[in-house]
Amino acid sequence: SWGTLGGSTLDIAYINGDTNGQIASGSVANYYVGVTVPTGIEKLSAGLAWDVREDSGGKGRSDSAVGLYFQYNVSDQTTLNIRGERVNDGPSRNLGTDSWDLTTTLDYKLWNGVKSRLEYRLTVLDDNTQAPVQTSGAAAQENSHGVTANLIYEF
Question: Are strands 143-153 and 9-18 parallel, antiparallel or unpaired?
Fold first, then answer.
């Protein structure tokens, strides 16, 4: 038994591919490390994730995100998730879109293999003066809000 770490998970992933046919051509490498641990509070777990994308394998041409998340099992059918992330678009993109994200998700299991999801996301840009220009000609908003509803079939 792992004692207090019983029920923990560690996920490691690496994906390498080619972006031919995309806006920028070349190889892309993706790295992911995630760990989830019980908190000692019944029905509550916490996790940490690190995700990096490197364009053309070159140093300094990468994006990254670090996230901290919590999952609370309200009932057998309902789960509440809260995730905070720090996103760094990397110096090569020079988009000024480094950001902080906060996402809250409510999952409800309708029946076996089908769940509904309601999600709210807040994104706060560090510096919107360098952000991509929208069609109206104005700089992108410093804060953005999004609400998403899904029906998900898992197979």
Answer: unpaired
DSSP string, 14-63: EEEEE-TTSSS-SEEEEEEEEEEEE-SSTTEEEEEEEEEEEETT-TT-EE
At position 14, the amino acid (one-letter code) is Y
Look at the pTM and tell me if it is higher than 0.70.
yes
Q: What is the DSSP letter of 151?
A: E
| Alpha-carbon distances of 144 from 50, 57, 102, 122, rounded to whole Å | 23, 31, 11, 6
| pLDDT tens for the chain, residues 1 to 155 | 567 778 899 999 998 877 665 555 567 888 999 999 989 899 999 999 999 888 764 555 678 899 999 999 999 999 999 999 998 876 555 555 688 899 999 999 999 999 999 999 999 887 655 555 554 555 555 788 999 999 999 88
